[in-house]
Design a protein that fits this description.
Layout (H helix, E strand, L loop, with lengths): L13 H6 L3 E4 L5 E7 L2 H16 L9 E8 L3 H19 L1 E11 L3 E10 L13 E12 L1 E9 L1
Antiparallel strand pairs: 1-2, 2-7, 3-5, 4-5, 6-7
Length: 156
Amino acid sequence: MEPKARLPDVSGSAEMLKMTKRFEVIDHTADIAIAAYGADLRGAFANAAYALFSLMVDLEDVGDALCHEVEVTAADREELLVAWLNELIYLFEVENVLFKRFEIGELTKTRLRASCYGEKIDHERHKIKIAVKAATYHMLKVDEGDGFRVQVLFDI
């Protein structure tokens, strides 16, 4: 009998592993969900926005010369996450803008202000992979532990 390969012991470092990745895609039957991580809530919200646009297009092909200021308000952090992502989807749909970098200047339980960097869609360079219609309240979570984890389901 051959010995089995030993996996490295990562017990006790699950939180550390989460902090090394920006986001992950969560399996869902009809739509698509993501979990985004950050050392603080700003980072988690920024990584959720990054995940949104990375689902739609290869972000390596997107520049960041255009800056757009975004401000949203909501009743609580969970609703703020949905409002933030839906505002970005609105800007994508109406102004034909792709974003790849997000600097969140103000973030309270009910208000977010951010500078979003990207460029107008160039259909020669930007191939849309998935059309995201909206961020939804289904599976919505904002968790705080050793850092932050936010989860949202996108309607596609």
